[in-house]
Design brief:
Length: 189
């Protein structure tokens, strides 16, 4: 599995209502995409949930690397580049991904953690997988995933939740404008 996330910073005076409309219009086009567990259309608005600027982003969990490749090669990403330019797509190899007990994802929390140079990688991977399983068991979790970037040796934790962020959560919070979830129900509990 591959986690992919990209973000576009928006001008301070950008009408975020346009992003909400875009997600409403474009979101359903992703509801039946094969080999996609989910795609979240995300928004951060200045002054809300810790955001210091407006940004629009997309978060994907792909079943196979070929599906991510096909997304890039098929022209689906061109719609984004035509509107917002080419973003740096951050990719992570998913170590674990699970479906939670909740059903209506409203927010995403993303946390990036450096893996210490002297860490026992096998133990660190096992610990992150166990932690992800525990997060998925929470009553408010729709899905949880943890990935690794082996270039920067960073873990990325992703939690899709029903709960509005309180501001005390680690990492970055995003509002979900639309969640396409073609294969979400096939993830293990």
């Amino acid at each position: 599995m591959i986690i992919a996330h990209y973000s576009h910073r928006l001008p301070a005076n950008y009408d975020t209502g346009l992003i909400r409309t875009r997600a409403q219009e474009r979101g359903p086009l992703w509801d039946e995409v094969p080999e996609l567990y989910f795609k979240a259309f995300l928004l951060r608005e200045e002054g809300r949930y810790g955001a210091i600027a407006n940004s629009y982003s997309s978060l994907y969990l792909w079943r196979h690397d070929e599906a991510f490749r096909d997304f890039l090669m098929s022209g689906r990403y061109k719609v984004v580049t035509d509107a917002f330019g080419r973003a740096d797509i951050q990719t992570r190899f998913a170590l674990d991904a699970r479906k939670g007990q909740a059903h209506h994802a409203r927010f995403v929390a993303r946390e990036d953690l450096n893996i210490p140079l002297d860490a026992d990688l096998t133990a660190a991977f096992a610990s992150e997988i166990e932690r992800n399983r525990e997060l998925a068991e929470r009553s408010t979790t729709v899905a949880a995933a943890v990935g690794v970037d082996t270039q920067s040796w960073t873990f990325t934790r992703i939690v899709l939740s029903e709960n509005e962020p309180t501001g005390s959560e680690p990492g970055t919070s995003y509002e979900i404008l639309h969640l396409a979830k073609p294969l979400l129900e096939t993830l293990p509990l």
